[in-house]
Amino acid sequence: MSLSRTATTFAPPVMEARRWLSGVSFPADRPLINVSQAAPVEPPPAALRQVMADVALTRDDAHLYGPVLGLPELRDTLAHRTAAIYGGAVSADQVAITSGCNQAFAAVIATLCGEGDEVILPTPWYFNHKMWLDMSGVVSVALRTEEDLLPDPERAATLITPRTKAIALVSPNNPAGVEYPAGLIAAFFDLARRHGIALILDETYRDFHSATGAPHPLFEDPDWSDTLVHLYSFSKAYRLTGHRVGAVVTSRERLAEVEKFLDTVAICPAQIGQHAALWGMQNLTQWLAGERQEILTRRAAIETGFPRLDALGWRLLGVGAYFAYVAHPFEKSSADLAQQMVRDQGILCLPGTMFCPENDPEGANQLRIAFANLDAPGIGVLFERLAQIRA
Question: How many CB atoms lie within 10 A of CB 261?
Answer without folding.
Answer: 19
